[in-house]
Amino acid sequence: GPSLKESFKGDFFIGTALNTAQIEEKIPGAAALVPQQFNAVTPENIMKAEVMHPEWSRYNFEMSDKLVAYAKKHNIVVNAHTLIWHSQLPQFVRRIKDADSVRLFFTDHINTIAGRYDGQVYSWDVVNEALNEDGTMRKSIFLDKLGDDFVVEAFRLAQKAAPKTKLYYNDYNIEQPKKRAGAIALIKKIQAAGVRIDGVGIQGHWHINHLPLKDIEESILEFSALGIDVMFTELDLSVLPNPRDIVGADVNQRAAYEAKLNPYTTGLPDSVQTQLAKSYEDVFRLFLKHKDKISRVTLWGVDDGQSWLNGFPVRGRTNYPLLFDKEFKPKSAFYKVIALK
Ligand code: XIL
């Protein structure tokens, strides 16, 4: 059958996010599908600091080495994710109180990990999610102890440790005007310091009812005007309501509330399936329009069954945000996307 990677060959990389079981090829459906459909992979969790750097002087390269070997075997590039992020940090970092120790962690972490995989991974998300919605710097242990310049410093260290690796800034909602302005200022600051940044990743965790096509298009143009690659790095389209949009969270109506929160446990109604397909078609049409400016589109997961959106922002839901269903079958969204070519 048709494949995403063949369809978009010459346009942009088409990627997916993998966890341990898929990297170890323990899920037959995923083991067959990933090399057939995708030519880029992002580790969904296994290259985050809490996994790779569990204690002060102990690194854990077990899964990341397996990922690199897996990718090499299947002729897929690795987009490593992520060096510096406020979340999924190891316990020992959360306990640090003084700036010198944060700096020691920061420097050693980047040098060791970026250095080890230079020439083995295609790119790094050097810094992830450093901004607030209003475009100001987000509160974190790095901002708190190292100050505003921690982003520039992270890229400076990464450029030295990983001269052969592309270096990216990655964040969500940076297609939104205020946050986008913050990201542009941040990228310009890195460039003004004479430090290398090769691209920006717009995560792309969107919703079928609010697909910000105009903001996405403006972002592609404005980010690429900075002379860097633009990527969509964690694309998924939720079909479920945001909990804050559900009114009537009455304790006496618990069952009704839960049903509203998780309405499609037995399958996706045709009307929503169609809307999802249309949303994917619209966003991929826009990507194709600007394919000269877009270097990669990565879906945040292989199939609906393992999507993080089944557990976020509330646990235990059944979401349908990807192009393959939980049986690894292509959905109508897949066929709509393929048909654009
Ligand atoms: C998510 C993973 O998908 C989950 O499995 C994990 O529990 C939490 O992190 N932005 C990012 C990603 O940059 O690293 C996040 O991944 C999703 C939001």
Structure, explained:
This is Beta-xylanase. One of its GO terms (molecular function) is endo-1,4-beta-xylanase activity. It catalyses: Endohydrolysis of (1->4)-beta-D-xylosidic linkages in xylans. Residues 1-340 form the GH10 domain. The protein is α/β, with parallel strands linked by helices. The chain has one domain (4-267, 286-303): Alpha-Beta Barrel (TIM Barrel). Helix content is 40%, strand content 16%. The protein has 14 helices and 9 strands. It has helices at 4-7, 20-23, 28-37, 49-52, 62-73, 91-94, 99-116, 141-146, 150-161, 177-192, 213-224, 254-261, 270-289, 332-339, and strands at residues 13-18, 40-43, 77-84, 123-128, 166-171, 199-202, 205-207, 229-238, 294-299. The protein has an 8-stranded parallel beta barrel with strand order 1-2-3-4-5-6-8-9, surrounded by 5 helices. Helix 7 runs parallel beside helix 9 (150-161) and helix 13 packs parallel to helix 14 (332-339). The longest helix is centred in the last third of the chain and has 20 residues, at 270-289. It is globular, with a radius of gyration of 20 Å. The relative contact order is 0.12. The mean pLDDT is 97. It binds (3S,4R)-3-hydroxy-2-oxopiperidin-4-yl beta-D-xylopyranoside (XIL).
